[in-house]
Amino acid sequence: MFWFGPHRCIVFCRPEHAQIIFTDRHNFEQSPLIMPYFDLLCPYGISLLTGAKWKRHIRVMLPMFKHCCQSLTMNIIGFIGFDYDFDVKTDSPLKIAFEDFVSYAVFIMMMPWLPRWLAKRYLKFNWKYQRAHRFIRQVTEKIVEEEQNKQYEAENYQPKNLTASLVSSVNEDANDQKISSGLTRAEMLDEVLLSIMAGYGTTSAGLSWFIFFLSKNSHVKQRMKEELRQHNLMTTDDVEYASPLTEEKLSSLIYCECVTKEVFRLTPTISVTTRMVTSDTIIDNVPIHSGQIIFIGLLNIKTDERYWNKNPKEFIPERFLIEDKNYHTYAMVPFDDGHRACLGQDLAWIVLKLIIIRCMQRGIIFEDTQENTGGYEEKLACRPKNLAVRIRFDRH
């Protein structure tokens, strides 16, 4: 049992329980606690929707993400998902606005006990949040406007990225009675904003954890480089050249895949997810009534010694080659699961694996320091609280 603010929740922390919950879409639906009060910031984001409205949005969003993954056209979130260069530097206005927006989003979501009217007033009169929100909305609308101009000027235009597909789906008469009616402009803008936030949050958190783990496990770096050499994928003396990565070459890098998998297994990017019970049911002799909110402890499951042979709290990519090769399907769920699984999970996986491989190709070394103590910092995705590494380049 767990109290989340005023909400009494039942917590399940075994993969068998997770499998029952995730595969039964009729008895378990998205919970309002998945992102508390986030509808005050982004009311039409698909993560918050249920019922007919969710079905209408998923009808538009799911094919887009599948297409992006299958075509392997994403290099970075901005260019691939949105065909737009965010030009994010350390002190750029967009980066500052985005970080402010995320910090207030996390702040408001971590206080479910706060009355809704007070949360609304807090955001309304917080000038720093309002400034960040306006700036991000302007950037989002600029992305959409540029795409609309492209589609208006071109004949027989075929959408090539997420924004193009979203813009093509705009229909101000869209309604929940007709699932295939598309999205309104307001809904489309929220989906663009949520996609940017989700894409940035999970990928940057995953990369941060990769850097942390690699700085603590130098033997992993050596084994990755050996695998790249075996496939002639290490960079030459010409630092501007990097061997092309095809889909076939990516698939052949087994150990690099294990490293990516271990990063997502051991990191609490999404440490918990939640559902609402829609009709009375029983899980493992535990009666659950309609309207009850349940939590699934994803991080607990991913580090449970009963389901992993090697020490599950240690970073050991080799586990997926031998002892833990045939792990329980629901012992590792990094992106939620079932019909409410993260739409961009395949994309996030590919992006992180590509970044990891490119870092190793370039001979980038992350050295440990005394300040590199890890810990957890909750944002949209959990990341290392204290990440301090020394970076150098090894050309050998």
TrEMBL record:
GO molecular function, one term: heme binding
Record keywords, A-Z: Heme, Iron, Membrane, Metal-binding, Monooxygenase, Oxidoreductase, Transmembrane, Transmembrane helix
Cofactor requirement: heme
Source taxon at top rank: Eukaryota
Gene3D superfamilies: Cytochrome P450 (1.10.630.10)
Binding site for heme: C342
InterPro entries to which the protein is assigned, alphabetical: Cyt_P450, Cyt_P450_E_grp-I, Cyt_P450_sf, Cytochrome_P450_Monoox
Membrane-spanning residues: 64-81, 101-119, 192-214
Family, per entry: Belongs to the cytochrome P450 family.
Protein name: Cytochrome P450
Protein species of origin: Rotaria sordida
